[in-house]
Amino acid sequence: MRVVRFGVGVIAISAGVVAVATAGAGSAAAGVPLIQIDQGRIGMSLSHDETAAVAGGPAPAVISMFVPVSKMGAGLQPDTAIYKDERGGVHASLRQVMSEAADHPDGSVVVYFNAPGTRGGRVLDVYQNWTEPGR
After folding, report:
1. How far apart, in whole angstroms, are the C-alpha atoms of residue 105 and residue 55?
2. Domain segments of the chain: what residues?
3. pTM beyond 0.85, yes or no
């Protein structure tokens, strides 16, 4: 029951963040919800326009006020410009990870919120996606 409540709450928060962030984008866009109960996480797949809108808005800063960088994970593309240390630690803010994806013509992100006690204690995971070179 705890996971179900967590899932419903995070989907509502995620949908709210995307709705607020994309409200000024002039489209009726909304992220695609992703539910992976067996992996203890739920999230949203954002389009390029949604990624750019969220990256340029207040959401990364607001999320970072509640989720410290040490509790975030980032799945970076092989050609990323973001520094990753020898232990795999990513040295970038949520805004930097999302903005780098938004700087590619087909760049997007998938954002997952993890259930407590899963994923090595990470609360949030962000995965970059793109195939075309950045600007």
Report:
1. 14
2. 2-129
3. no
